[in-house]
Known about the structure:
Blueprint: H1 3-17, H2 19-28, H3 45-59, H4 63-81, H5 83-87, H6 92-97, H7 99-110, E1 118-124, E2 128-134, H8 140-153, E3 158-164, E4 171-178
Antiparallel strand pairs: 1-2, 2-4, 3-4
Helix pairs in contact: 1-2, 1-4, 2-3, 4-8
Protein name: Heme NO-binding domain-containing protein
InterPro entries: H-NOX_domain_sf (IPR038158), Heme_NO-bd (IPR011644), NO_sig/Golgi_transp_ligand-bd (IPR024096)
Amino acid sequence: MKGIVFTEFLDLVEAKFGLEMVDKIITESNLESNGVYTSVGTYQFSEMLQLLQHLSQNTNISIDDLLLVYAEHFFAVLAESYPGLIDSYKDPIEMLASIENHIHIEVRKIYPDAELPNFEVIEKTENSLVMIYKSSKSMHYFGLGLMNKTFEHFNSTATIQLEKIKKDGTEVKFIIQKN
């Protein structure tokens, strides 16, 4: 997993819960990196899981809810760092439908060894989208948060349903209906 995911996560934890919480979740975790991350480095997903689990335990906020909040933060980082990528779209459905064929291609140009989930578009209309998320990591709530922020970015709303295809969340169907 790319280091930017870790550095931004710890920035969010510091902003929301304080530097003491950052120190606490790093100390409570058994991290190969010792909690030292660079945005361009590559780290084990297990480290993110440990940080999330300890933050959840210390705040009584579910991991899914933490991933939603983190995705909102991360979207803002992406929008600020790569405005041309997001601004090339005029509609949230178009943007979400192009994750695999455009956005992930651009991400791989910046981070060639990034492990990205796969989004397969099953059905698309002007106001709806059905996609299958597949990943070796269960981060579908992070994806949901990014989708929510995509609609917000375009001053729009949507109803997004999740249907777990695999119980562990590594394969999920997103059913999106623009309001």
